[in-house]
Amino acid sequence: MILHYLKIAFRNLIKYKTQSLVSIIGLAVGFTCFALSVLWIRYEMTYDNFHEGADRIYWAGSKSDPQGNGFSYYSSTLLVDHVLKKCPEIEAASHFYHNNNIRETIRYQEEDFSIDRITADSNFISMFNIITLNGDDHFYLSDDQVAITDKIADEIFGNKSPLGEKLIFPDINNSEKTIAAVVKSWEGHSSFPFDVLLPHLSQYPDSVEGLECYTVFRTYPNADIQALKKRLEKYEIPHSSSNKEIATPITLLSTLRSTYPREDVIFTVNRIRLFACIGALVIICGLCNYFTIFITRLRMRKRELALRKVNGASERSLLALILIEPFLLFCISIVVENVLIEIILPVFKRLSQIKEDTSSFFGELAVYMLLLVAITMIFAIIIVKFIGKRTLLENIGNKSDLYLSGWFYKGSILLQLFISIGFIFCTFVMMKQLNFLLYSRECGMDRHNLGVVRLYNNEKEAVFKILDQMPDVEEYIYGFYSLIPKHYFLTTIIDDWEGKVNGSTTIIMENETINKEYADLLNIEVLDGEMLDEKDGKQKVVINEAAAKVFGWRNPIGKKFVNMEKECVVKGVIRNIYYNAPVYPVAPAIYFLPKDKNEGDLIIKVKDGAWKTVNQKLKEEINKMDPNARIQLIQMEERYNEYMKSEETLNKLLRVVSFVCVLIAVFGIFSLVTLSCEQRRKEIAIRKVNGASIGIILNLFFKEYLFLLIIASLVAFPLGYFIMKQWLEKYVKQTSIDFWIYVSIFIIMAFIIFSSVIWRVWKAACQNPAEVIKNE
Length: 776
Fold this sequence. Notes:
Radius of gyration: 34 Å
Helix content: 40-55%
Distance between the termini: 34 Å
Oligomer: single chain
């Protein structure tokens, strides 16, 4: 019997193949988005939660004004001793260093291996309960010793004992170190993975006062964390010659990645949750589409079901007959979803930075899918019971009472149109914002075709000669540090300026260098006054818009302030330069003429499309000149675009999802119009007999869908505006949401919908009325 029902369900799916295909695609895409986002969220939320006492381990950073989000991962090497003595809430503390996202090389018997390494103090081993698998359980690493994990030990030595073996570290002056212990690898994924553990670097002794290391500590159970945070808001470290107050913000190690994401973190947790919501909306859209058609077909089959009941079919068997079809469709959708996941997963793992085995994920995914199928089948049973309330005679006597104006039908179409319009609107605005950030002059400088060449122990003059002989290099300049990527920060504190109001605080400002040649190369715009030139003395400076604002100057030209006990006069104001991610405001900055042009980066401008050629040619020529030369080439535009990877990826996802949702909505409408035409054939024929033209008949359908489109737009556009306004608020530079976006989307949706139904309605309206009435 079940096999017979499966055949009937399969034949129905084939009979309505267009509607079935759209439902399967929609559900499969929604399932895929939702499943991958669940995997992603779980992975992101479990960073470093495997450590013993993970809920009490904190990361101590430092204030990083005025760059970025104001939080730096680095802290003073003197911090550990200070917090252990002055903070009774802290049980243990350690400082260490880890080259985040940069694999290094070790050499064993002329063979190189790529590894992650940590250099740490002796407290690190006990604080994180590092388990020794081979060697002294209480090992202490001297300068010429290392500990390695069991995973890297298996990779390098296999079954051979690694104790006493020598490893060469090319990145540490080819130093040789002896393996003193083999320790257990981390049990989960961490923000600081390691294969090799070294003693804290000797070039960073405890007397160093700079931001040279990472600091973590574990508090006692039930410690007052708020009191600890307050204690670390402002303090002085003893034995520090600077005697300046320090602020140390802290956050749980397990939430560090989501609270203060690094530049290499492409997606934040909030973005991943949004990704999950998008998948859920696609599933809802697909389900609404399918159930609308399911109910329509169910009403069309009332007579068939009634006759089956007259011939002895039980309520249970009829229910099974009806529910087999949605169950089969769900099974096919889940199979397609699993195929999609298998295809997408390798790329997805690389994009999402998931570095662990995900085989166990499919078991968890099966549970989610079964739960979703169960909920949906319960909903289907309710629908079947509701529709089946009519008496047997009513069902037999009426072929169908389907007139597609019911609340469920209209509500379903409205919801599908609402989701589709919402996705398209958000995609439009996001694309407009991304284009604005990437190509607008308001971001302060031109990044197009500009590159940075960092030279290490190379002859500058020889490199200049190479560049002079390269026709693809239009211009170059030396003696300035690149703004993108920016690796050189110098700040100054200004506490005296013209027009200062009594009680005003000091201002932390960036110190930069600039001249006319540099400004012209980067196309930096002067908003007021003039750019510095070589005739100006050390007294003249240029400031940016942010500096003029914090000084409170409406007319900055000629205004004065004191910097390092020297009076400076403002000659010009330039536009704010966005060298960081555009979610962070630009810091106030002062620009001086360079004192010495013998230091800095080599900044070059190349012809359109010539960057790869210049990159390869320059490396080849420099290596010919010096085979051991170290050189780094960075394309400014490419590096800046990395800040936008999260939004760009989300935008691509929205484009795909928008297309799927529109496809579901349009084909859903087309399917329902087809069924509607079948049910209203007699009505259409009678209207034609009474003199109605084809245009009038088409207008009957167009009015209905136009009304639904208007209602959906009136809901989707305000909600979309609210959501995207909130999204735009996080950017310091924002595009406008213009009226043409609303009009364009409405016209596009109206055109797509009407184009998709006009053929079917036209065909029904052109039928011979006599033939239709005779067949009825």
